[in-house]
Amino acid sequence: MKNKEISLDTFSILSNAGWLLVIMRIANIISTPWDAILAYWLALLGISVVLGILTALIGMWAKGGDKGGEK
Question: What global pTM score does this model have?
Answer without folding.
Answer: 0.70
